[in-house]
Structures are given as C-alpha cells and as structure tokens.
Amino acid sequence: MAKVRWLRRMSAAAVAATALISTQGMAADTIKVGVLHSLSGTMAISETTLKDTIMMLVEDQNKKGGLLGKKLEAVVVDPASNWPLFAEKMKELLLQKKVDVVFGCWTSVSRKSVLPVVEQNNGLLFYPVQYEGEESSRNVFYTGAAPNQQAIPAVEYLMSPDGGSAKRWVLLGTDYVYPRTTNKILRAFLHSKGVKDEDIMENYTPFGHSDWQTIVANVKKFASQGKKTAVVSTINGDANVPFYKELANQGIKASDIPVVAFSVGEEELSGIDAKPLVGHLAAWNYFMSVKNPTNTAFIKQWHTFIKKKTRVTNDPMEAHYIGFKMWVQAVQQAGTTNVDAVRQAMYGQKVRAPSGYISVMNTNHHLSKPVMIGEIQPNGQFEIVWQTKGPVKGDAWSNFIPASSKLTADWTYPWVCGNCEKPKYTPVK
Fold first, then answer.
1. Fewer Cβ neighbours under 10 Å: the N or C end of the chain?
2. Closest CA to 164 of 277, 280, 269, 252
3. Taking the mean position of all CA atoms in its chain, how far away is CA 19?
C-alpha cells in the first residue's frame, strides 16, 4: 500500500511538473494588441490613420518599458471595408493570434459584425468612433461620441440664433445602421421641438456613392421654400469627397445652407480643396486646432512618429489615445491582461485628453467627453465656434426613443446589464 501511495504521489508530481513546463512554454513573450481597421476599400480614407495611431501608442508604451514587464506587440489585420470579413478577422485575432485586446472598427455595421464574436469569446474591443448609441456590451468600450455627445448638441446649435436659427432639416446619410438610427433619434428630437415631418428631408446613399448632382439639386430646391435650412450629414468614407465638391459646384455656401457633418474631420478634409467649404461645420469631441499642452504634445508625438509634419490629427485618433491609455492603466491596476479583471479596473479610469479635458470611463462603458462644433477654415482646420462648459456623459440609450428611454446600462454590481430598465423609486412619505 505504501508503494502504491508513493507511486501515486510521484505520478501526481509528474503531471504537475508537466503542466508547469507546458504553461511556461505557452506563456506569451509579448502582450498582443489587435488592430482591426480597414487599410483598403472605401473606409481606408478614415481608418488607415487609426491603425497608425495604435502603432504609435504601442511604440511609445514600449519605450516606457512595456506593460507588466513585457513588450507590447501590435497584430494588424485588414478587413478591407468588407463587413462580414470584420467578423472573420476578429476571430483570427482572438482565436488564432491570441490577442489580449482589440482596437478597431469605424462603421457601426463593422462593429455589429464583430460583436457576437467578441462576446462569445470574451474579447475586449475599444471602439473609437461616434455612433448611434442603442447599445452597451460588456465586451466593448465606446470611446467615440454617443448621440447626446454629438448629434443632439449639433442640431441644438443650428436651431439657436448663434447657429442660424434653422427651421428646415435635410438628413443625408450613408445607407447603414449608424445614419438611419441617428436620424431616427434626430427626427424624434426635432418633433419634440415642434418641427413637422414636412420640414424634414431624409436621403440615404450607398458606401462610395459618387454622383451627388441630383441629390444636391434636391437639397437646394427643399431649401428654397422660405425657411432657413440646414443639412445634417452622416455620410461616411470617401463619398464625402464628391459630396463636398458638388456643394461647391452648385454654389451652396455655408451662409445659405450650412452643413454639419459627424464623420468629416481633418483627415477627410486633407484630401480636398477646403476653400469652397469654408463656414460649413463639424461636430466632434476634439479638433486639432485646440490649444493646450496635452494637444501640443500629442501633435508633436504624431508628427515624430509619422515623419510628416503635414499629417493631421482628428477626433477618432484622440478616442484611441484615450482608450489605449485607459487600457494600459487598467492592466497595471489589475496586474493582468485578463479581460474580466481589466473590465472591472476600467471603471473610473481618467485620462487628460488632447481636448484639454479629463475624460472619465463610466460604468455604462461610455466616456464623459466635451462636445465641440468647429467651422471649416481654408487650410482644412476647424475654428471652434461652440463647446460645452465641461465633459458630457455618454448615454448608451436615447431619451428620444420611447422604448430606449426606459433603459439604462450599468456593468457594475448589482446591475451587470447593458439594457436594464431604469429603477422606479417610490417617494418616502
């Protein structure tokens, strides 16, 4: 019996030793950072810069000694503006490349494509672009603007005397979930302000649309009926270039029909002659023209990395800057890259952003960020004409959609839920 017990102990020790050796052999030499941005196709005009931004941030962190004693390794894939391919590339990053975190996507259709993959495999995605809201996933941190941090304030500004007191509205968008849902929210908001459906024109075009002559002519006709008209643009990708060219071709000036864009920033304007577009607007949470020490350092870091001083910075780049630094801080706090531990450590993380404000990650996985409206200048930069006094907390669910107005998102105990009904409190008598 003693010999049997001794053999069992030896066998158990051998198994444990084998497991230890196996674990040591499998231990990652680097912490892998997935980069999921289109480097080809219609969205490359916007997304290639975001890939470069993450490469810059990874390089900078490695210069500081890496993370948890390891170097960071950027793992880049190209989903090529192909929405189903985004899901396949996300699978590749999580299951084959074994990345610890993913920074990526631009369009909401690409985010929706990868969402089941991220959730099923308990991955972690940092999404850096303005979007339509109506979502809060335990596996996604939304570092871009929700509608209450961009779309609603922009329309409120255009309705105000400072913005021109617009009475009629043209909602132009690319035909996918972000523009359609955002415009659903905006239409409900406009109704709440007394705007009737006959004073709202809505039109959608496919990705990469290039023939804007008829649509712009229809906008001019709609605006010729005696009421101040403004255009709200959720046009995405390289379709913006021919759209703005056609505005200029048909002599549409910002003083007559102002356009406020939610997907056009410094990067998109760098590809066109901005002079005919002077006075048109964009709503973001950051502009390159912001003056503060953090932004000065951010721009200098970008120019040093990219080795070209004419390259611009923009809002989604800042969102990646914030998300990456928060993730680094959360990993350091948690002492691990384990997704569940990092998620809990993310709540309350703060970063001094290039916008000049301190951004805070909330328990609904959305940031508190300032809102800014910029006016296009001849050099392709923006002059800030309006901004909030401080950061605005992003709402996962819109108050202007009846079903959504009842919902809240809170991923901390006891809620742990992205679409919970808001609590109903009974007043104490």
1. C
2. 280
3. 42
Q: Are 164 and 230 in contact (CB under 8 A)?
A: yes
How many Cβ atoms sit within 10 Å of the Cβ of residue 74?
Answer: 19
Asked if residue 308 has pLDDT above 80, the reply is yes
- Per-residue pLDDT tens digits for 339-364: 999 999 999 999 999 999 999 999 99
Place of tokens 């617009």: 166
> Considering the chain, what is the average pLDDT of its residues?
92
What lies within 8 Å, CB to CB, of 16 at 6+ separation is none
203-226 per-position pLDDT tens digit = 999 999 999 999 999 999 999 998
- Full set of structural domains in the chain with CATH: 30-145+295-369 (3.40.50.2300)
- Stated as kind and residue range, the H or E segment containing 171 is strand 168-174
Please check whether residue 210 is in contact with residue 242, taking contact to mean a CB–CB distance below 8 angstroms.
yes
No. of helices (H) and no. of strands (E), the chain: 13, 18
CA 343 – CA 338 distance, rounded (Å): 9
Over the stretch 97-132, which tens digit does the pLDDT of each residue have? 999 999 999 999 999 999 999 999 999 999 999 999
3-state secondary structure 363-391: CCCEEEECCEEEEECCCCCEEEEEECCCC
Q: Where are the alpha helices (DSSP H) in 32-107?
A: 44-63, 83-91
List the one residue out of 231, 245, 77, 210 whose CA is nearest residue 164: 231
Residues 11-51: tens digit of each pLDDT: 444 434 333 333 333 346 999 999 999 999 999 989 999 99
Instruction: Read off φ and ψ for residue 229, nearest 5 degrees.
Output: -115, 140
Tokens of 419: 């679409």
